[in-house]
Amino acid sequence: MTVDQYTPDISSPSRTRGLRTLALCTTLALALSSCSAFNRGGDETQAAPEDQEEFTIGVVGANESHREVERIAEEELGYEIELVEFTEYTQPNPALTSGDIDANWFQHIAYLADYNVSSGEDLQPIGSTAAVPLTLYSNEYEDVSEFSAGDTIAIPNDAVNQGRAINVLVAAGLLELTEETRQPEPRHIDEEASTVQVQPVAAQQTVNALESVEGSVINNNFAQDAELDPEGDGIFADDPTEAAAFPYINAFVTRAEDSDNEALREIAAVYHDERVLEIEAELSADTSVPASDVTPEQLQDALVDYEDSLRNAGSETSAEEDDDA
Predict the structure, then answer these.
(1) Residue 70: which residues within 8 A CB-CB, separation 6 or more?
(2) What's the total number of domains in the chain?
(3) Residue 234 predicted with pLDDT over 70
(4) Are residues 144 and 54 located together in one domain of the fold?
């Protein structure tokens, strides 16, 4: 087992599916040499053979829970797993789409829906992991009531996490919106009625932003890397146990043609082994909520629902723009 650095090779012709392994939620850019059935000449990827036992799985921010899943899958289930680590959220889905990896584990359903709608792809969730709160941190304040007019809060700049972060700040009473929308953007913020202003930055930069702004909404894996405790250091978070948080359940994801692959589903299910959940609880300061009873089919239904809502919102925006023109 190795953890590789990924660099897309756009010049190589065809590749054969070599080492297939498991990668989980982390941070670095990687280079796989020959690990897929993707043909660089333009052929589509092929479904993984049913007897395949070696898998590559992409992650953003590998930690001990990822390594425990890998260990159990290898030592107890007999699969060979290779962790493939990426530096940014924008990297693992294109790598999966192209066939450079077999699966990824870094995203929730809402993020996956946004990727599929914007790219025209059809990646599918095959196993749930957990929902984790999205937390507001500050080096200056200990309570949301201390923020004052003109303060700035950094938020992730990718569409889905940006929308969720804005909703966190709405729930905290720091922002008001001009209209109700499932995935708000900065343009939906009523600046006159709001206490703070937002500053979108790359998700991996939200920790560094704490040094220059009054607050920052930081995804759990980047908070872990920075040794921030959501319970001790965080001052506000959304509730991952609410029904509205279902689209924020994280999942193992594959290409559509591999969504019924029994081996990949079995590997994904390892997440809910008690040994993995104990590590996850410790890493998340008991804020992670395992989605143990959620089936792949329920995840896929939620994905379709969220994709439809994004397409409908896009159609309404286009109609408004046409009216303005």
Answers:
(1) 1, 21, 22, 24, 81, 83
(2) 2
(3) yes
(4) no
